[in-house]
Amino acid sequence: MQIGIPRALSYYNFYPLIYGFLSDLGVEIVLSDKTTKQTMTDGSALVVPETCLPIKVYVGHILNLLDKGIENILVPSVQSIAPKIYNCSKIRGLPDLIRNVIKRDFNMIEATYDKSEKNRSSIDFFKEIAGKLGITDLARIKKASKNAWRVYNNYLVMTRSGVPYVQAVKYALENKVVLAQNDTTKPVNIAVIAHGYNLYDERISMKIFEKLDKLDVKVFTAEQLTPEQMKEGLNKLETRLYWANEFEISGAAGHYIQDKKIDGIITINAFGCGPDSLMVDRITRYAKELKKPILNLSIDEQTGEAGFVTRLEAFVDMLFRKKRSTIINKIDINEQQPPQPRITEPKVRVTMEDLVQKM
Ligand code: SF4
């Protein structure tokens, strides 16, 4: 049994969970290739231009799987992740969108996750996937579901300890738990705020982690925060949780903006994304209020790497200069003066009589 998984959208949030489930059932997983310019071009050709980049990329990944000859492809419909917390309409209606734009024959494995209207738990979601693969043995599904949560929780423990995303996924799939040991320090700390599918797709984010590392910047992301820290961040922004991704965007931003060790914030948002435009606007206002430097990068399939790098470098350079001047201003000039020579009493006192004798 083989199932294709597009390397896009929910892949970047939940792949360890899906992997833990399907591998326990003995299903072979085939991932689409990493995003390339071609993936974007192929996906963009099938949807209306106003569609956000992550959806165009998702369509491109389905085409990539079809080109590989994969017949079963998992296309989840993640409606709501908690009571009254919804995904955007494009993610909710993903199977319908794919059915309407891709006119090629394949078996779409649809499964709905909905904690609001239908109050479906994760086991219902897993049962639906397994059922479409012809597996109905409940004990087997429950065992696989347990394994799914174990792998996923290991992944969460690692990312929260500071293990970078790519390594955390790799270790989780290998059934390992490795915690970050080296807490390296760098001259400048930046929090990068974005959806996982924009941030960890190297073509969409243009390898931002690598670029910031070369610029001697330490990067912080939402994955390093606990739900409590993100909740407290949301409260700082005085916003009510509505969108499913609001935790990782508004919550993480609210937390990092008031964190004194963070020198600046970078947001990456997709052009044409309704929820992002609302969240980023609120984040920017709060950052300005607290005088935290912020750079908003909006991306689409036309975004050029040269312009992206220039803005990144200029922002980092400004943060370095700001930090340097803050340090210089803190130095007390009086403390830095060289010690004054001490005037001491001569050991041999010259009296008037000595002087008269010398004359
Ligand atoms: S949240 Fe925004 S970027 Fe993500 S799929 Fe919806 S519209 Fe696109």
Determine the strand fraction and express it as a percent band.
Answer: 5-15%
Order of the strands making up the biggest sheet: 7-6-8-9
Question: Assembly type of the shown chains?
Answer: single chain
Helix percentage range: 40-55%
Overview of the structural elements:
The structure is a single chain. By secondary structure, the chain is of the alpha/beta class. The protein folds into two domains: 2-173, no CATH class; 188-330, Rossmann fold, CATH 3.40.50. The chain is built from 16 helices and nine strands. The strands form three sheets. A four-stranded parallel β-sheet has the order 7-6-8-9, with helices on both faces. Helix 6 (122-132) packs across helix 7. The model is unreliable at 354-359 (pLDDT under 50). The protein binds iron/sulfur cluster. Residues 52, 54-55, 88, 90-91, 195, 270, 273-276 line the site of iron/sulfur cluster (SF4). Iron/sulfur cluster is lined by residues 52, 54-55, 88, 90-91, 195, 270, 273-276.
Defining key terms:
359 residues; alpha/beta; Rossmann fold; 2 domains; four-stranded parallel beta sheet; three-stranded mixed beta sheet; 50% helix; disordered C terminus; binds iron/sulfur cluster
Summary of the model, kept short:
By secondary structure, the chain is an alpha/beta fold.
List the topology elements:
Layout: E1 2-5, H1 11-24, E2 28-31, H2 37-44, H3 53-67, E3 72-82, E4 85-86, H4 89-92, H5 94-101, E5 107-114, H6 122-132, H7 138-161, H8 165-173, E6 188-193, H9 196-199, H10 208-214, E7 217-220, H11 227-236, H12 246-257, E8 264-270, H13 274-289, E9 294-299, H14 305-330, H15 333-336, H16 352-358
Parallel strand pairs: 1-2, 3-5, 6-7, 6-8, 8-9
Antiparallel strand pairs: 3-4
Helix pairs in contact: 1-7, 2-3, 6-7, 7-8, 11-12, 12-13
Bound molecules: iron/sulfur cluster (SF4).
